[in-house]
Amino acid sequence: MRGSDRIEQIYRDVVRRNPGETEFHQAVKEVLETLGPVLDKHPEYAEHKIIERLCEPERQLIFRVPWQDDRGEVQIARGFRVGFNSALGPYKGGLRFHPSVYLGIVKFLGFEQTFKNALTGLPIGGAKGGADFDPKGKSDGEIMRFCQSFMTTLYHYLGEYTDVPAGDIGVGTREIGYLFGQYKRITNRYESGVLTGKSPQWGGSLVRREATGYGTVYFVEEMLKARGDGLEGKTCTVSGSGNVALHVIEKLQQLGAKVVACSDSNGVIYDEQGVDLQVLKQLKEVERRRIRHYVEHRGAAQYLENGCIWDIPCQVALPCATQNELDEASARRLVENGCIAVGEGANMPTTPGGVRVFLNAGVAYAPGKAANAGGVATSALEMQQNASRDAWTFEYTERRLREIMQNIHRDCFETAKEFGSPGNYVIGANIVGFRRVAQAMLAFGVI
Ligand code: GLU
Predict the structure, then answer these.
(1) Is 168 near ligand 1, meaning CB less than 6 Å away?
(2) Residues 248-265: pLDDT tens digits?
(3) 295: which of 29, 227, 231, 413 is 20 to 30 A away, CA to CA?
(4) Best mutation site among 108, 372, 379, 397 for ligand 1 pocket (most ligand atoms within 8 Å of CB)
(5) The domain 59-190 belongs to what CATH superfamily?
(6) CATH 3.40.50.10860, the chain: domain bounds
(7) Distance of CA 342 from the midpoint of ligand 1 (Å)
(8) In whole angstroms, what is the distance from residue 377 CA to residue 118 CA?
(9) pLDDT value of position 104
(10) Does the beta carbon of 196 lie inside 6 Å of ligand 1?
(11) pLDDT at 1 exceeding the cut of 80
């Protein structure tokens, strides 16, 4: 059977075996579509059913998370942790607290994470988890009680050599603190390496907070460099205003680019003079408020309620909010308005139709699993520091992050060329990640 025929068959089976999990289907399809030539080159992968095994998570946990709100009322959320693949290291990936979370989202994220983590070249397997809990509008006490309840079930399945969660949407340093505190209390172990994204005051790594955003910008910088261009003076738009978006904006500004817009799920800020990061950080990180309040501090800026950020002309677009936030029509508009590069700080933010538009238009397009790998890479650096009971400087850690991003770019670039699609980072990223996981799986036999 030809590689591409076999892959169609595998995809049909995935859809049949995982009904209704549309985001998971989408993530699998996007990877499988690029693997036909790899199977033709490596018949041993087909013989040992590597792809079939890769599409089936190694383990999936769904659990009840009961908690009490501030009025004393009992609430019930659903928790998840999917260990997708541990061929290259312990399960590693974030936790997402958001009302949209269900098994299909967790599996798409865990599947992507497996390839992303392989791309970093560091010893980490792929996983994801979270809950359909909505942190929006919750008090600090409610967040703490929820995290404690969540960990009281999850701790059985974690360990620095087994499964190491971190943050994702809705989970930052504060939540990691409550989760770690509960783990420490119920296990009687100060096991720093069981969670990453900790505060540097108690075992976290410097640069982890900045890493996803900074890394995304480094990747875009490398893509532009490969085309004889650079970020200096470029007009950029960044969707979202969470941890990733804020640090994408910060690094873009450090490298001389101008960021004119960002957003949240209610609307868009357009600031022609360039976004004021101090105002934004104060609003989002300290006051935890919506971005509509930005205009109270910056009179010249506009707030576009329910606006679409991709309507705003830019040369570089950085989707840093969530999955499927940039569709085909938005991609067309970006291209028409002169966009030459796209770097995904979020996971799978561009729909398959949108990706096609970018690739056909010759836009330098960096898929999330390559572009945003700096976050989890720095998590692996945090694990290294924890294992050696060491703490590195900001400068050293940032240098390591930058080198990792440069290496990921080089590997994707060269592999795309090797497979006859120069400049196609989708193909490059999928094949590099897949080959690394596949080689390890082959070595381990049928497990
Ligand atoms: N949630 C992040 C991601 O999508 C980071 C995961 C981690 O650091 O383990 O890669």
Answers:
(1) yes
(2) 999 999 999 999 999 999
(3) 231
(4) 379
(5) Leucine Dehydrogenase, chain A, domain 1 (3.40.50.10860)
(6) 59-190
(7) 20
(8) 10
(9) 98
(10) yes
(11) no
